[in-house]
Amino acid sequence: MRWMSLLEVIVAGKDCLVAGDSCSSDESCSPRLRTLRQCVAGNGNMKLGPGARSQCANAVSALLSSPLHGCQCKRGMKKEKNCLSIYWSLHQSVIHGLNLVENYPYETVHKDYDYVRLASITADAEAGLTTVNRCLDAAKACNVDDTCQKLRTEYVSVCIKPTAKSGLCNRPKCNKALRKFFDRVPEDYTHELLFCPCTDTACAERRRQTIVPSCSYESSEKPSCLTQMQICKADYVCRSRLAQFQYDCAPSETSPTGCKQDNYGTCLLAYTGLIGSTITPNYVDNSTSSVAPWCSCANSGSKQDCEDFMGLFSHNICLRKSGCRASHFIPLVCLSPFLF
Ligand SMILES: *[C@@H]1O[C@H](CO)[C@@H](O)[C@H](O)[C@H]1NC(C)=O
User: Fold this and answer.
1) How far is the CA of 205 from the centre of ligand 1 (A)?
2) For residue 74, how far is its CA from the centre of ligand 1 (angstroms)?
3) Which part of the chain is the GDNF/GAS1 domain (predicted)?
């Protein structure tokens, strides 16, 4: 078990930036990468003639035996966007009917977050329900950690500050600061803050306000989810965060954990990776623990596609159980409307 994960790290640990550099300095690899980038230009929607198609197919099959194959990126890394653009140049080719093995953009972070640590806590879970305010504890814990305290102060101040010009907050800056917080602060702190269990509306409202919704995403009218999803997919970072979320939080009806990947920790990590993007998810109100992005399927062209997207958040057993676990509660308690 142990050495398997280690092996996985070694195999999957190829950085697309490094792979891209080594490809560019190789005279057989670099023209193929250039060809491929042309093939996927315009989001891969460009109509290609039969000649171009076969050129693209050739480039892909040649690149499958280059360092680019199987490369990934690190979330929050420097030049993350460049790295992801290289990742997607190969993976976007799927659009042209050239299938690649199942893959996902970000390197797996191996941490025994849920199973080891939480297993020892579940025994005390119910006792903790009435005696401890975990949301308060989480905030205190964050304050004694330098990085957590600094980056939390940073996003809060950016997100609540009205700009002199418009009197409104600076949304892009707020989202950037939120992404920085969730990318850099260890999940022990961020997950406690965001998934602390609540038993009353005051607590739940405070938890909902954690990511300053009024600045980070709220607007007078909810946009269409499909529009938001298209905006997201046009951005390498957002598209990658979504792909990672779909992979790590994929539900399973046959797995006892409810997750296809059987890992609550990586599911939550992928969930927080979406905060600060066009599809930022959050608690929808202060009387339940339902989560969703700020968008609606009311006027969507394709109702089914839209509902499928919403379902990733609102009807996802894997995500629900992951949030439950993070709250240190046994599954039964998680059925309460207040818990995740
Ligand atoms: C809960 O949400 C409702 C509706 O948004 C709001 O009116 C109410 O003040 C909130 N409750 C608390 C305790 O903040």
Assistant:
1) 7
2) 38
3) 16-95, 135-215, 225-318
Return the residue whose CA atom lies nearest to atom 1 of ligand 1: 286
Phi, psi of 304 (to 5 degrees): -65, -45
**Residue with the nearest Cα to atom 6 of ligand 1?**
286
Number of H helices, E strands in the chain: 18, 2
Q: 169 with 215: CB under 8 angstroms?
A: yes
Paired tokens of 115: 């199973």
Ligand 1 mutation pick, 135, 199, 205, max ligand atoms within 8 A of CB: 205
Strand partners, 15: 72
Give yes or no for a contact between 232 and 242, defined as CB atoms under 8 angstroms apart: yes
**Distance from the CA of 186 to the center of ligand 1, in angstroms?**
30
Return the structure tokens found at 16: 């697309």
Q: What angle do the packed helices 146-160 and 171-184 form, to 10 degrees? A: 170
- Report which ligand 1 atom has the smallest distance to the Cα of 201: 13
Angle at 189 (CA atoms; ends 134, 279), nearest 5 degrees: 100
Each residue's pLDDT tens digit, 261-318: 999 999 999 999 999 999 999 999 999 889 999 999 997 678 899 999 999 999 999 9
User: What is the model's pTM?
Assistant: 0.85
Rounded-to-integer distance, Cα 23 and Cα 32, Å: 9
By DSSP bridging, strand 281-283 and strand 291-293 are: antiparallel
Report the alpha-carbon distance of residue 104 to residue 110 in Å, rounded. 15
Residues 6+ apart with CB under 8 A from 11: 70
